[in-house]
Specification:
This protein has 100 residues and is mostly helical. The protein is built from 6 helices and 2 strands; from the N terminus they run E-H-H-H-E-H-H-H. The chain has a two-stranded parallel ribbon with strand order 1-2. The longest helix is centred in the C-terminal third of the chain and has 14 residues.
Length: 100
């Protein structure tokens, strides 16, 4: 068993969910989870570094994501430790004002 954690810039995520008419509270919950790396943290906790792979999907097309996922899985090296640092890019209070 492995986990492929697909990451997305929180502001991009908020825009996509708003375009799909998600409730603001639900959108913020998802943005907040992405902001603090929740899915990555939980995956690493349960599976360990060797069985977790991470892809930043921001500005990538589906075929590009597929190719990257296959490349990562074939290499079999697991999580590389380089994760997007959304908290360095966004202030949570300012971001919440944009989302909510």
């Amino acid at each position: 068993m492995v986990a492929l954690v697909v990451r997305l810039d929180p502001l991009t995520l908020a825009r996509r969910l708003n375009a799909r008419k998600w409730p603001k509270k639900k959108t913020w919950e998802n943005v907040e989870a992405e902001l603090i790396d929740l899915a990555l943290f939980e995956s690493l906790k349960f599976l360990g570094r060797k069985r977790v792979y991470e892809i930043d999907a921001t500005r990538k097309r589906p075929l590009e994501l597929l190719r990257e996922a296959l490349r990562l899985l074939s290499a079999g090296e697991g999580w590389h430790g380089l994760t997007p640092n959304w908290l360095a890019r966004y202030d949570p209070v300012d971001l919440s004002r944009k989302v909510l």
